């Protein structure tokens, strides 16, 4: 049978990210796939080489809007390794609380998107409503709903006062109760089972070979979580279970993410109960020591990797970021390329693609254009500063 | 004896003088090997030691060439680094050992111009299709003020 190609994206109603999927079809069956992820390259690694360590943090936080807490945490932990200074334990606990809160909001957001992709819009509305409670808590703790910038080099930006701690624990009760309901729905609702079981199959061998990370890897039955394997922040003192599931399909990814919500809730409760007293930030000098540092953080989408080489100057010599979605692209190709082992219907592509919780903007990090005028240029920092002073960012 | 020292000792036993430099931190092992042994060391870690996970491959321009660092491991992270010449940089690909290396090698090929020999499909990954040939944005000589080329639709 002859094959034909269908391009999907980079802007398509079924795909919420700027990705071009070039599908090779035999009838309605997908037999080959290629990607183009180059639509959002922003040059952040290059930009970081031109910024001091303290200026770099706001930029790193903007690599990904949803995982910003994980990016900020990974950056600060990484830079702190270049100093020989103890970070207060209270800061490490507070970091964990905000990290897990942001994981809850990300997983709830993903559950909604996944439900939306399979046409289950009621669940989409429900999860996003409950996510609002978590967003309110993030705003109350950090001062911002989305870009939290909570973790700073040397500690955290502000403390959690006692009245807010009570409110946080009450919110956790709500999240736990609602998650119980979602797990019940996911496990018993036939619509979900029919649309997700056996779809987007990724065998444990393929998951390991393609170096998949995070919930995608754990849903293929591989027990792997940086929080357990190489604990950072306060994770060594706050126990949790690594959730795995063995059906290796989209259904498994739903179950893993939903079950992880319970672990997040329990970790926040334990951390708030054992919150150490003391300062929440130490002042660190502008210049770190020379050396190199490598940090991994379990972001909501999987293992996030930051590496820096310092020459003891104000700015890093090289800053490397590897985001979870880039690591999961190989796994996605494996899910979509059946090679005769199982059937991938074209209708299953959006949910399979959605099941890696993709974030293309954070995959391609590198530039800036004006398409209307048909030209492109780069503003210097001084120009940008001048424009922001005038209160007029657009020409 | 802690776990990092153990791994380093095993690597030294297997490769001896080929380990040019080494350094350990908590849960981190960094080693430097000659360019021609890079693939052999990765092969040893993957096949003999059974490490399946490649975190990423970092590429950077240093004084005397381009440095490639493969970061392997799940808990303990082992970084294997090697330096290759700036002119016509070439190194053998590790995609056949770890299929997950494909995208990381393509990214380095885009941004630094390193050619990975016997890579299954060394094409553009992150840069736009109409980005000029031979301009590598992560090289230190690349000015970030350089006007980015404009992409016109896609075909």
Q: Count the E strands of chain B.
A: 7
Q: How would you write the strand order of the largest sheet of chain B?
A: 1-2-5-4-3
For this structure, what is the CATH class of the domain at 3-85 in chain B? Alpha Beta
Structure classification of chain B: alpha/beta
Task: Please specify the SSE layout and strand pairing.
The complex is a heterodimer of chains A (395) and B (155).
Chain A: E1 4-8, E2 20-26, E3 29-36, H1 44-48, H2 53-61, H3 68-80, H4 89-117, H5 121-142, E4 151-152, E5 155-156, H6 162-188, H7 190-196, H8 204-209, H9 214-218, H10 226-229, H11 250-273, E6 290-299, E7 302-311, E8 318-322, H12 324-336, H13 349-354, H14 360-363, E9 369-370, E10 375-376, H15 381-389
Antiparallel strand pairs in A: 1-2, 2-3, 4-5, 6-7, 7-8, 9-10
Helix pairs in contact in A: 2-3, 3-4, 4-5, 4-11, 5-6, 6-11
Chain B: H1 3-15, E1 21-25, E2 28-32, H2 38-48, E3 54-62, E4 65-72, E5 77-84, E6 90-92, H3 101-112, E7 115-117
Parallel strand pairs in B: 2-5, 6-7
Antiparallel strand pairs in B: 1-2, 3-4, 4-5
What's this entry about, in short?
Chain A is α+β, with helices and mostly antiparallel strands and 395 residues long.
If you had to describe this structure to a student in words, what would you say it looks like?
Chain A has 395 residues and is an alpha+beta fold. Helix content of chain A is 46%, strand content 13%. Chain A is built from 15 helices and 10 strands. The radius of gyration of chain A is 22 Å and the shape is globular. Chain B is built from 3 helices and 7 strands, in the order αββαββββαβ. In chain B, the strands form 2 sheets. Chain B has a 5-stranded mixed β-sheet with strand order 1-2-5-4-3, covered by helices on one side. In chain B, strands 6-7 form a two-stranded parallel ribbon. At the A-B interface, helix 1, strand 6, strand 7, strand 8 and helix 12 of A face strand 3 and helix 3 of B.
């Amino acid at each position: 049978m002859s094959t034909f190609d269908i391009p999907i994206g980079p802007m398509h109603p079924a795909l919420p990210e700027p990705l071009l999927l070039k599908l090779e079809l035999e009838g309605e069956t997908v037999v080959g796939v290629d990607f183009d992820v180059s639509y959002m390259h922003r040059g952040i690694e290059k930009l970081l080489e031109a910024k001091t360590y303290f200026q770099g943090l706001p930029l790193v936080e903007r690599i990904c809007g949803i995982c910003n807490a994980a990016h900020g945490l990974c950056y600060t932990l990484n830079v702190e390794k270049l100093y020989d200074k103890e970070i207060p334990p209270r800061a490490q606990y507070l970091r964990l609380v905000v990290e897990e809160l942001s994981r809850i909001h990300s997983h709830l957001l993903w559950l909604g998107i996944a439900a939306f992709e399979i046409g289950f819009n009621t669940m989409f509305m429900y999860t996003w409503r409950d996510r609002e409670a978590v967003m309110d808590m993030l705003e109350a703790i950090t001062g911002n709903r989305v870009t939290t910038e909570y973790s700073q080099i040397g500690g955290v930006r502000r403390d959690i006062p006692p009245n807010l701690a009570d409110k946080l624990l009450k919110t956790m009760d709500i999240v736990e109760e609602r998650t119980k309901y979602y797990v019940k729905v996911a496990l018993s609702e036939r619509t979900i089972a029919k649309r997700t079981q056996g779809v987007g199959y990724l065998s444990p061998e393929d998951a390991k070979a393609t170096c998949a990370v995070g919930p995608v890897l754990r849903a293929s039955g591989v027990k792997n979580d940086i929080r357990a394997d190489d604990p950072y922040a306060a994770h060594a003192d706050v126990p949790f279970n690594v959730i795995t599931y063995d059906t290796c399909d989209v259904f498994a990814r739903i179950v893993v993410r939903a079950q992880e919500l319970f672990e997040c809730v329990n970790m926040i409760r334990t951390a708030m109960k054992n919150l150490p007293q003391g300062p929440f930030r130490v002042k660190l000098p502008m210049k770190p020591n020379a050396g190199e540092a490598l940090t991994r953080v379990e972001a909501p989408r999987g293992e996030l990797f930051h590496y820096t080489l310092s020459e003891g100057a104000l700015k890093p010599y090289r800053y490397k970021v590897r985001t979870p979605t880039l690591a999961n692209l190989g796994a996605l190709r494996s899910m979509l390329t059946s090679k005769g082992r199982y059937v991938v219907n074209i209708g299953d592509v959006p949910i399979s693609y959605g099941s890696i919780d993709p974030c293309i903007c954070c995959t391609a990090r590198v530039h800036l254009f004006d398409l209307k005028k048909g030209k492109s240029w780069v503003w210097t920092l001084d120009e940008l500063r001048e424009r922001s002073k005038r209160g007029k960012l657009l020409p | 004896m802690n776990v990092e020292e153990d791994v380093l000792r095993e690597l030294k036993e297997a490769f001896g003088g080929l380990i040019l430099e080494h350094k350990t931190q908590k849960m981190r092992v960094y080693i430097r090997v000659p360019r021609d042994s890079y693939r052999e060391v990765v092969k040893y870690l993957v096949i003999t030691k059974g490490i399946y996970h490649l975190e990423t491959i970092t590429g950077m321009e240093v004084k005397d060439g381009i440095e490639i660092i493969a970061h392997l491991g799940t808990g303990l992270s082992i970084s294997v680094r090697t330096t290759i010449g700036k002119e016509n940089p070439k190194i053998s690909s590790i995609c056949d050992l770890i299929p997950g290396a494909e995208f990381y090698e393509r990214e380095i090929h885009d941004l630094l111009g390193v050619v990975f020999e016997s890579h299954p499909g060394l094409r553009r990954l992150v840069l736009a299709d109409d980005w000029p040939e031979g301009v590598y944005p992560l090289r230190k000589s690349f000015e970030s003020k350089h006007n980015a080329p404009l992409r016109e639709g896609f075909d």
